[in-house]
Amino acid sequence: MKMAKIDLKLLKNRAEKAIKKAKDLKELNEIFKKYLGKRGELTQVLKSLEKLPKAKKIKIGKEANQLKDFLRIKFDQKAQEIKEKIEKEVEEKEWIDITAPGKKPVLGHLHPLTQIRRKTEEIFQAMGFTVVEGPEIETDWYNFDALNVPAEHPARDLWDTFYIKNGSAMRTSSSSSPSLPSEARLLRTHTTPVDVRYMEKNNPPLRIITIGRCFRHEATDASHEVNFYQLDGLMVGKDISVANFKATIQEFFHRFFEKSIEIRMRPSYFPFTEPSFEVDITCLVCGGKGCSACQRTGWMEMLGAGMMHPNVFKNSGLNPKFWQGWAFGMGFDRLAMMKYKINDIRLFYSGDLRFLHQF
Ligand SMILES: [Zn+2]
Fold first, then answer.
1. pLDDT tens for residues 120-159?
2. How do residues 201-253 score in pLDDT, each as one tens digit?
3. In the 8-state DSSP scheme, what is residue 309?
4. For the purposes of burial, counting CB atoms within 10 Å of the CB of 130, is it exposed (0-12), middle (13-18) or buried (19 or more)?
5. For residue 339, how far is its CA from the centre of ligand 1 (angstroms)?
6. How far away, in angstroms, is 306 Cα from ligand 1 center?
7. Beta carbons of 150 and 309 less than 8 angstroms apart
């Protein structure tokens, strides 16, 4: 019986140490099983009491039960301790300082070309123009034939065009295009086809502008991109003249650049206008005095324009005997470059945030 007594003391010491060392609830549970489980050490001791004489049974039984109660309390205390520790850790991890200043959300802004596009549209709309759009994939007819550029016309050599064959774009030198039917599809090389499409469906008087993407197969450099924007304008009526054009375009530049702008017109050639002219504006850098930017001329080349060719009216279903009007086409990227003093068109399409953040 002496052995049983020593066993209980040792058992108590071992169990207490183990409980103290337990790191988590799982480990604590294992220790509980080891001592107080169905086959636990203390449970075994209690079971073995049956074989002892009555006096011993009472004495050791009392001690064993006291130990059992003592260990249960120790287990409960340790379990509580572990739970509190976990709660504290979670609290620390998830703690939020509600008084800390908030993080400002990063807001984007419109691309410089979009900003300029809206400004341009606003100015023309204020002058009574309607903003219209047309497809970027055009037919040979709208892009060339309807605009008085027949298949064999040398003007087609001015542009290298992306023709579309079997659903994918392929590059064809325009000089090989005469064999293509007029419904052959291509990526439009200018926005002027929109004029024809609009005149087909609307009766004059007309005042429209269109700004859209165009495509030409060109080697890219600081002033050329495969993909670029063009601004096209059209005004048709009974007695619309070059004077109307001059007044309109001068007013546009005045409002666009927010300074007094003079324009001058030089004779030129385009298949879809007759007469045709190139339009220069006062040099934005020197104001007309002459500087290196304008080769000391005081003028900057800005756009092409002219009185709409009678054939284009005919192709659009309008009688050139009753109607006349002007049209112009302008590189829209160039307009934006001059507004923001940017010297490389490729910056617009590079997606470089260092560039874009400046606007
Ligand atoms: Zn100048």
1. 999 999 999 999 999 999 988 999 999 998 777 766 665 6
2. 999 999 999 999 999 877 777 777 888 899 999 999 999 999 999 999 999 99
3. P
4. middle
5. 15
6. 25
7. no
Q: Rounded to an integer, what distance in angstroms lies between the CA atom of residue 26 and that of residue 42?
A: 20
3-state class (DSSP) for residue 312: helix
Bond into 271 cis (ω within 30):
no
According to DSSP H, which parts of 161-207 are helical? 193-201
d(CA 225, CA 233): 22
CA 80 to chain centre: 54
Asked if residue 116 lies in contact with residue 207, where contact means CB atoms within 8 angstroms, the answer is no
Cα of 297 vs centre of ligand 1, distance in Å, is 7
- Return d(Cα 43, Cα 7) in angstroms, integer: 13
Q: For residue 8, how far is its CA from the centre of ligand 1 (angstroms)?
A: 106
Helical (H) or strand (E) element with 202: none
For residue 218, the CA-to-ligand 1 centroid distance in Å is: 28
Q: Position of tokens 């659009």?
A: 316
Distance between CA 157 and CA 177 in Å, rounded? 10
Q: What amino acid is encoded at 132 in this protein?
A: V
Does the pLDDT of residue 2 top 60, yes or no?
no
- The C-alpha atoms of residue 227 and residue 241 are separated, in whole angstroms, by 33
The pTM of the full predicted model, rounded to 2 decimals, is 0.66
Is 288's pLDDT higher than 80?
Answer: yes
Span from the CA of 281 to the centroid of ligand 1 (angstroms): 10
- For CA atoms 105, 111, 115, 121, the dihedral sign is negative
Distance 54 CA to ligand 1 centre (A): 122
DSSP tag of 190: S
